[in-house]
Specification:
The structure is a homodimer. By secondary structure, chain A is an alpha+beta fold. A three-stranded antiparallel beta sheet of chain A has the order 1-3-2. The first copy, chain A, has a three-stranded mixed beta sheet with strand order 5-4-6. In chain A, helix 2 crosses helix 3 and helix 3 packs across helix 4. Chain A is globular and about 45 Å long. Chains A and B meet through strand 4, helix 5 and strand 6 of A and strand 4, helix 5 and strand 6 of B. Chain B binds a DNA duplex through helix 4.
DNA sequence: CTTTTTGCAAATGATTTGCATTAAC
DNA sequence: GTTAATGCAAATCATTTGCAAAAAG
């Protein structure tokens, strides 16, 4: 998502366009990996020395509602934020906790049907492949 | 997993069999749903009034290493513990945070291959279907 | 000018650590 | 007897809240 699209998305919901929001979005794009709120703040701190964690948290949550980012809950660590907005899968190292994107098709039709049968209204189906990353598989 | 199997599993790793461990395992089986450490403690407190949270946390982590339980990271809440040891999938309500088991087959061979191509040594592939549960889909 | 957003300080909630005591083996 | 496991109190880590000041529209 471009900066212009973010601004449009914000205005469309009556949300204000602030330097913090622009910079947090830019930080996520530039980090180009799953980052924690702390990591985002660090990156935002260079251009905006007084930026605060509460603002980062509030903004990431807002972005999630706007569909700008995905929240990736992590076992035993801070939740990570993923700037990709398309449905995709994840690799999670159970030793170091690292989470990476994983490309690949998957036929989830059967599972989604099972979910609906349970009264659930599904809107995503993502796989987490667990195991050991190359570095930890020693 | 039966109580006997748990004891064998503990002894096989040189771990001691304690009433706390037996009762925490029993609590998980009897709760028969994804429970938080707090909820496990509550249930253990009846037979063992002095049981403590640190012991519950340490024990659940040990059980995870033994493959006795699964840890389910939850966004915006305490991590939940799942007494099922077979690979299975999850439904996660993005409104109330509830997590339920989901039965169903899935061909993950292609994804696992992609994971290995990335130097990853995968040992599980589980789907999280996100959306709204029946109650929250109003 | 009005209302939202921000930053700061403090609060909360979950989980972990240090350490003396207790219990398994 | 030795060593690991437990319970307690206190610490830590991630995240949220209250509120006055600053900034967006």
């Amino acid at each position: 998502m471009t900066e212009q699209e973010l601004q449009d998305s914000l205005r469309a919901r009556g949300q204000r366009v602030t330097p913090q929001r622009i910079l947090i979005h830019r930080a996520l794009r530039e980090l180009d990996r799953h980052a924690s709120a702390e990591e985002v703040l660090e990156r935002v701190t260079a251009p905006l020395p007084n930026a605060s964690l509460p603002t980062v948290y509030a903004t990431l949550e807002l972005f999630e509602e706007l569909g700008v980012v995905h929240r990736v809950p992590v076992a035993g660590g801070p939740t990570l934020w993923d700037p990709r907005t398309d449905g995709h899968h994840h690799l999670a190292c159970r030793s170091c906790g690292r989470v990476e994107d994983l490309e690949g098709e998957l036929d989830t039709a059967k599972l989604l049907r099972a979910a609906r049968r349970r009264g659930f209204r599904p809107d995503s189906a993502e796989v987490v492949v667990g195991g050991l990353c190359g570095r930890c598989a020693d």
